[in-house]
Amino acid sequence: MARAGRPRNFDRDEAITKAMHLFWEKGYEPTSLAELKAHLGNLSSASFYAAFGSKQQLFEECLAKYMASCGELNQLLEDTAVSARSAMYAMLKQTIELQIDSHTPKGCMAVLAGLNCDDDNQAICKVAEQARQQTRQALVRCVQRGVDQQELSATTDVLSFAMVFDSFLKGLSIAIRDGATLATLTQALDFIMTIWDCHACRCD
């Protein structure tokens, strides 16, 4: 019997997107190599390794693609054309809308796909952690800008303040997987922004 190889019209970019959605939905370890090969067009093992190198390399490429698209929301935090508060609100609101979109898996791939790996896959945990760290650092910079521009009190503990919003951001993935609605999450966002307002600079 002839061995199944790469489909004649194999589109690598499309395959990366399909694999990204699979990892995003199920996580790294629950997604088997056999499932990946089948999902990407019944690739043979030889074709899979030739195209992607390994399951780990494929995951890393998928996560990079995710961060280059969904992760672009972090750039909203750097928008100096608006206030730091407005940038924070816009980023969180658009994140909610994206993570709850019915056209993609729910939640955040960087939060959900690389957790609880066994000892053999700690490199995956590290890669996912680095992706999450990118967002955390962007949040810190946004809060620091709020302090520097006197939107927030000079006594604001920037790291702790950013951690509050980072924790909310990561918690969205679980809430959305548990069925939270757009209306509920938007109300929660409006509430958490009152924390920002409570620390607003009262400069006369």
Provide an overview of this structure:
With 204 residues, the chain is mainly α. It has two domains: 53 residues, Orthogonal Bundle (Arc Repressor Mutant, subunit A); 127 residues, Tetracycline Repressor, domain 2. The chain has nine helices and no strands. The model has no long low-confidence stretch (mean pLDDT 91). This is TetR/AcrR family transcriptional regulator. Keywords: DNA-binding, Transcription, Transcription regulation. Pfam families: TetR_C_13, TetR_N.
Task: Describe the protein's topology.
Layout: H1 12-26, H2 33-39, H3 45-52, H4 55-69, H5 84-99, H6 109-112, H7 122-148, H8 158-177, H9 182-198
Helix pairs in contact: 1-4, 4-7, 5-7, 5-8, 5-9, 7-8
> Can you say what the CATH homologous superfamily of the largest domain is?
Tetracycline Repressor, domain 2
Order of helices and strands: HHHHHHHHH
Number of helices: 9
- Share in helix: 55-70%
In terms of per-residue confidence, which ranges show pLDDT below 50 for 5 or more consecutive residues?
none
Mean pLDDT: 91
Provide the CATH top-level class of the largest domain: Mainly Alpha
The CATH architecture category of the largest domain equals Orthogonal Bundle
The chain-level structural class is mainly alpha
The total beta strand count reads: 0
Oligomer: single chain
Distance between the termini: 82 Å
Total domains: 2
Kindly identify the CATH topology of the largest domain: Tetracycline Repressor, domain 2
Radius of gyration: 20 Å
Assess the beta-strand content as a share of residues: under 5%
